[in-house]
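Re: your question from the hallway

Yes, I did run it. Sequences:
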Amino acid sequence: MKKTNILLLFLFSIDIFSVGEVFVINDYKDMDRIINFPNTEKYKVIVADLHTHSVFSDGAVWPNVRVEEAVRDGIDLLAITEHLEYQPHIDDIPHPDRNRSFDIAEDIAKNKDLTVINGAEITRMFPPGHINAIFIEDANKLIYLDEAKISEAKEILKEVPEESLTNYEDLSWLEDAALASLWPVKSALIEARNQNAFTFWNHPAWSSEEFIGQPMLREIHKEFFRDNLLHGIEVANGDGYSEEAFRIALEYGLTVLGTSDVHGLIDWDYPSSIGAHRPVTLILSESNSIDAIKSSLFSGKTVVWFKNNLIGLEDNILELTNSYLKAKKVEILENSDIARVEIENVSDVRFIIQVLDQSSVVNESNLIEIAPNEKTVLQIDSGIDKGSLDVKILNAFIAPNKNLLTTLKF
Ligand SMILES: [Zn+2]
Ligand SMILES: [Zn+2]
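Structure:
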């Protein structure tokens, strides 16, 4: 009896029950990794990655790594969105509660400059493919195993090619996955709507080889848009960008998103040594509150930053470029009409601009790179009174293949 007490005391005293304590990672700051998009005068700019995975579905890391990576990248808002149905690690890491990875991540993020929200990936074959629901209250209610359909589920499994199963020792979890996939996706989306979730269509262009030669938009998607069950669409996922997804977003008024959908390590997928960064969604929000951020997502106030491109609605991109590219006349060169104009870029985007009035700039070609977080000086010859330059931003897209036109005032 006494021995047991001592053992219990020992176990509790080393705090083994707090994952946050056990998995502390040093908080070394790699400034090259920090994604820098300052607030504009009107909006908070929330840097968000709303699609990530951990070992609680098919990812390769514990949720704390997702949190630490996000902090290092300067992410403000993170969703860990496990596949509800596809659970290849479930025998090693049994977790009847599908909110578990969120609970762990939220706990670890408590004292950090990062907000973690609950999310899930509703996973079905195409169509409709995969759909994320974020700001959910309870992931468990988005999955349902209807035991009456077990023989139907077994039939589905017979069609899975054997070679795709060789990675797994125990296949019992697949039966549950097949059973879960038989619950209509619409029922899951209605539950998500009951929880006031924001939902978006994941990687529409690259989730299945079925897309080859076929339009990706099907009747079921249109029905979900109409019924307010699907609110956004990923135009960028991982290392891919889809113009067709952007076109669908514009046609159906969907919010555009860019996400990492990371399964392994962010730094391996996006090494800072080569200046890479994960795709993010920049949310233009009235305040830092969750309600305000959510409302901006519903009203389409987002810009995707993918590789070195800004993708989104014209008004939203203009809000950013007006704030991030500040031009001012610093001097008029002696005995001339040439003005030295300094353009300060306070963001992480390397803006590639084409000057539309070709005769204006005298010290550069009409194609100019405005380096991130630096000042670039142009010499402009158009008369002392000229106070603006019309430009096309070649890496800002307001529609497929359509660049932002704007005016730099100085
Ligand atoms: Zn997916
Ligand atoms: Zn995913």
